[in-house]
């Protein structure tokens, strides 16, 4: 991780960013299932942070007055040992001069014993994740295998990663990140700088370029789309675009979803309208441009920010409609690629095997400065928990559980679990949910959206609803692998995650007893 200057847009002076291996976003790591990878993530960043650091966040746990920037890299979606998971307290400063309490090793071990998938890596340092990721510390990690290769999906130059982020810039090209909450003034009791409730940038950045355009041939492409924004959701659709007057015309080619967070779907799903990609999520899609030779298309986003619910009317609404342009070449080309009707085995986790159902309320509170705080709880009556409260979610290896996220706040939150991939069972209004009931009537739930098929590690929990996911801890039907120890679950809006909307969970070994799980 180094500080570098990068040209984000031709009309903007170079921007100072932080990159892995000197680039933002970081290099795409390509790994093969069954071939483990070791990575030594090395911190070569300057002593001072690039962005305003609010030292009131987890102030009793973070040595803010000591030198150096704390980083730690998490492999998001990685079914990995806990000592290589990159948990927030496993941070380290430049050249490992200082390390956090849960730092265990320099060389992270990724066993790659899970289905091929679009994973990503990003910083996860305690209390400053939002700033480290915003500065540029994120990249893709594509896990492949021969079976997937043999499907004949578009590959090579026709397989393109798209890292979607929103950023704001100052006139001199530097990254803009707010130092204070909007609507507060200098005589408010807020710390300065202060964490903001949410961050939404005014500029679409794709693969480190502002409002880019992509040239394609009139044929099929596979796009590995990552929503790597701090807080923003995307709801994407392609439109024909008239550049002379900047207007959109008819809808363009649909997205054909072939995979999401945790790997390929059982069969492809054509997204008829908008493709929702929550913060932190991935969409593995094929788009066929063959009917659009010679045209320009716009990748359009209509997701509100914040996303859904009463809070979208609070005045901080920051839509970002234009994501990028796609220029389709005029000349026909051969296209030997295909999208087979069967992609992978995705066995359903059986609901009748559930060992535990967890009612997980998400509520609003405020911190000691009166700033809004989104918190996670484990029971209706008890007060919600902060990050450092004792662990309340302790599944045993090989257990199957339903996690029911009950969103009692005013906006949608993208809920993420480390280590595992879950299946979305469905949603119901909060008023119809009875946490005391013995079983959940799956039939009565609003079924998952088409883009929520298969294996997910982030799910959109909408306000006023309970979102149920089913998860198995450990290997399942030959997929994934057994891991025990401490991991995190949290909202993937990074300002929320940094501000206590994050909790540990701990996978216990079958027999209780001792294991080195870093507790
Ligand atoms: Cu991508 Cu704990 O996060
Ligand atoms: Cu949140």
Structure explained in plain terms:
- It is a single chain.
- Strands 9, 10, 11, 12, 14, 17, 18 and 20 form an eight-stranded mixed sheet that branches. Strands 13, 15, 16, 19, 21 and 22 form a six-stranded mixed sheet that branches.
- The two termini are 28 Å apart.
- The model has no long low-confidence stretch (mean pLDDT 95).
- The protein is globular and about 60 Å long.
- With 519 residues, the protein is mainly beta.
- It folds into three domains: 146 residues, Cupredoxins -  blue copper proteins (Immunoglobulin-like), CATH 2.60.40.420; 173 residues, Immunoglobulin-like; 157 residues, Cupredoxins -  blue copper proteins (Immunoglobulin-like).
- The protein contains three helices and 31 strands.
- CU-O-CU linkage (C2O) binds next to β5 and β30.
- The site of CU-O-CU linkage has 10 residues, from β5 and β30.
Bound molecules: CU-O-CU linkage, copper (II) ion
Assign the CATH architecture of the largest domain. Sandwich
C-alpha geometry: globular
Give the class from helix and strand content and strand pairing.
mainly beta
Q: Return Rg in Å.
A: 22 Å
User: Helicity range of the residues?
Assistant: under 10%
The structural domain count equals: 3
Superfamily at the CATH H level of the largest domain? Cupredoxins -  blue copper proteins
> Which CATH first-tier class of the largest domain would you pick?
Mainly Beta
SS summary, helix count: 3
Straight-line distance between termini: 28 Å
- Mean pLDDT equals 95
Major sheet attributes: 8 strands, mixed
């Amino acid at each position: 991780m180094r500080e570098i200057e990068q040209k984000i847009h031709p009309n903007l002076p170079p921007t100072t960013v932080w990159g892995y291996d000197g680039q933002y976003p970081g290099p795409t790591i390509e790994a093969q299932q069954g071939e483990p990878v070791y990575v030594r993530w090395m911190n070569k960043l300057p002593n001072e942070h690039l962005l305003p650091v609010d030292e009131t966040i987890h102030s009793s746990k973070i040595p803010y007055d000591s030198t150096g920037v704390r980083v730690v890299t998490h492999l998001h979606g990685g079914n990995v040992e806990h000592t290589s998971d990159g948990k927030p307290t496993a941070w380290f400063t430049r050249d490992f001069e200082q390390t956090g309490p849960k730092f265990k090793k320099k060389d992270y071990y990724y066993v790659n014993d899970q289905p091929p998938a679009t994973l990503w890596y990003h910083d996860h340092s305690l209390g400053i994740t939002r700033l480290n990721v915003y500065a540029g510390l994120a990249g893709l990690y594509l896990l492949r295998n021969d079976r997937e290769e043999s499907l004949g999906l578009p590959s090579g130059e026709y397989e393109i990663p798209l890292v979607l982020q929103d950023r704001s810039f100052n006139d001199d090209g530097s990254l803009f990140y707010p130092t204070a909450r909007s609507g507060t003034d200098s005589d408010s009791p807020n710390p300065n700088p202060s964490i903001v409730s949410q961050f939404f940038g005014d500029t679409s950045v794709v693969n480190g370029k502002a409002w880019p355009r992509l040239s394609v041939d009139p044929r099929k492409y596979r796009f590995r789309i990552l929503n790597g924004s701090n807080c923003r959701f995307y709801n994407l659709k392609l439109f024909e675009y008239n550049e002379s007057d900047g207007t959109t015309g008819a809808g363009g080619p649909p997205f054909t979803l072939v995979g999401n967070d945790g790997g390929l779907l059982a069969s492809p799903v054509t997204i008829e309208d908008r493709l929702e990609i929550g913060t932190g999520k991935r969409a593995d899609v094929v788009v066929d441009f063959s009917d659009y030779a010679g045209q320009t298309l716009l990748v359009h986003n209509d997701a509100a920010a914040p996303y859904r619910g009463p809070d979208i009317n609070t005045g901080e609404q920051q839509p970002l409609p234009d994501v990028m342009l796609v220029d389709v070449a005029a000349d026909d080309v051969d296209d030997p690629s295909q999208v087979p009707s069967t992609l992978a085995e995705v066995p359903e986790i059986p609901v009748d095997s559930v060992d535990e159902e967890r009612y997980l309320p998400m509520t609003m509170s405020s911190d000691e400065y009166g700033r809004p705080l989104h918190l996670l709880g484990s029971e209706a009556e008890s007060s919600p928990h902060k990050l450092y409260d004792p662990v309340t979610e302790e599944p045993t290896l090989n257990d199957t559980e339903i996690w029911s996220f009950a969103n009692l706040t005013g906006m949608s939150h993208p809920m993420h679990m480390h280590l595992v991939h879950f299946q979305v069972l469905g949603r119901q209004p909060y008023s119809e949910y009875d946490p005391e009931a013995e079983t959940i009537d799956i039939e009565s739930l609003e079924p998952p959206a088409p883009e929520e098929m298969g294996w997910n590690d982030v799910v959109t929990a909408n306000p006023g609803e309970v979102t149920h996911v089913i998860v198995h801890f450990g290997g399942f039907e030959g997929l994934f692998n057994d891991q025990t120890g401490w991991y995190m679950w949290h909202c993937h809006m990074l300002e929320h995650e940094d501000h206590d909307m994050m909790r540990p969970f701990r996978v216990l070994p079958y027999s209780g007893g001792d294991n080195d799980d870093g507790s």
